[in-house]
Amino acid sequence: MRTDKLKKYLLPNLPYLFIGWACLKLGTAYRLAAGAGFGQKLVGMMGTIGPAFADFAPGLNGFDWLIGIAGAALFRLLLCLRAKNAKQFRRDEEYGSARWGTAKDIAPFVDPVFENNIILTGTEFLTMNTRPKNPANARNLNACVIGSSGSGKTRFWLTPQLLQASAGKHGCSYVVVDPKGGTLDQCGAFLQRQGYEIRVFNSIDFSKSMHYNPLSYIRNEADILKFVDTLIANTSGDGKESDPFWRKAETLLYCALIAYIIFEGAPEDKNMNTLVDMISGMEVRENDENFMNAVDYMFKGLEKRKPDCFAVKQYRKYKLASGKTAKSILISCGSRLAPFDIPQLREIMSYDELGLDRLGDKKTALFFIISDTTPTYNFLVALAFSQMFNLLCERADNVHGGRLPHHVRVLWDEAANTGQVPSLEKTVAVIRSREVSLTLFYQQMAQCKALYDKHAETVLGNMDSMVFLGGRESSTIKEISENWLGKATIYMQTDGRSKGQSESYSLNNQRLGRELMTPAELATMPGDKCIMQLRGLPPFYSPKYDLKQHPNYKYTAEADKKRNAFDLSKLLTRRMDKVDPNEEYAVYEADVPEEPDIDEEILNYDDIDDPDAYP
Fold this sequence. Notes:
By secondary structure, this protein is of the alpha/beta class. The chain is about 40% helix and about 15% strand.
């Protein structure tokens, strides 16, 4: 620190010290010169200037020091006036100052301990410490990785991040969207050896999945509104709804039913299955406005006990619809919730094992295995992520003093095919301070714009790291060429030759601007190269990270399938499809009541003490 201050303040002023010393010696020569007037003194200085400069040490005479200080100050003033009036020239930057980054540029952002870094490229790394000693070097850990199919988003970028998992007590947690489950198979066993708790939600094979109940994370009315908004946004299909009335009407009904389940239902009934059953039991008759179904009776009883509760208010607004309109609303709700009628999904949604709110409390790796061909259940990832970000921020603020003990890295592969998180542009801006980061993987930038429309620029603007692994989509490579890379000033040499009676030859040099890489050059970029830009630094044209060079590569399934393959069946609670006659079992007797009808089961939620409730 002291050396830096010396360089900052002493070195720039050394020339003025020398000028001051020279002026002081001139003052000494003038004082020693013979003569009474100024002219005579100047002539006499010819004989005294030599002895004055012969002695290096300055004297203690006040006149000499006055001349020295005045001379140095005058010289400094002249330089300031000249600089102020000088024309501004930027040599070799007339048309742009873009350049490729170097090792010197990235050095202040790299942690000396390799495992404490995020791997950006084969030669560039970023420290996991979001609060470095020099605040100017602070960067968030949000990133966006863009690359077409086959460019290596999983192999060259996502998998190396998991291999950075630290065995120490301060290692970060991971949330990974894993198409087809290849990443879990590759790194699951390694993460377990590093002390990570593995959790899996498998939408391809529900028999190999942990349970996820989104209603178990709802605490208040605000959580209900967020959940309903996310549910509707991710189950509306590819097209936009023509009439917002139906969406708003569905929102009223969902909010009323979920509020009833959360605040009035039994603990074992607080799940999505109950919501689906309630909607299934809501019969509507178009020609009988006074007809009451099971759910109507249920809310009538609740209204007597809690007339001003949130559930009753929302249901009362829904009941303003006529019979025909209400029937259309119920049909729309039934269609939207159709996936939840599938028996396997009903069983998965019956209770929760993922623990989304506690991912930052200890080292955890949560994998969402999705299908890359059938997106039927992919919207569940968006539901979980929407809840997860809110839960982690609330837990950081309310339990851990604003920062989670373990940083949570969300690696969202196939982000374009797993739905959208409402208000992601706001979420991604605030999660950094809670020790949460998000990495989005897209095949092209247009996918982000299709999902988040006018908010896409805000989402990408909060990503301090941008990585391009290759692709040919025109809007993406044009954006990278113009806005990521920019233009550099280059020299162009032209020559000419004319023949005739007298032959002449000319050679001209001129400056012009040129992109660091044109769209055509980006489209033909070698497969082992990538482009990375970190906020505040020039872009880097670097090799992709070689997975086989990672120190922990030997612990992957690719390196040793027999020893390092992850066995998902050992992680999950076993379901006995077949009984092994050679195995001992504990047998318990239990009384199983008969299953009631749907309407009867729904009515059990509430005591209707009105004797006139039933006709």
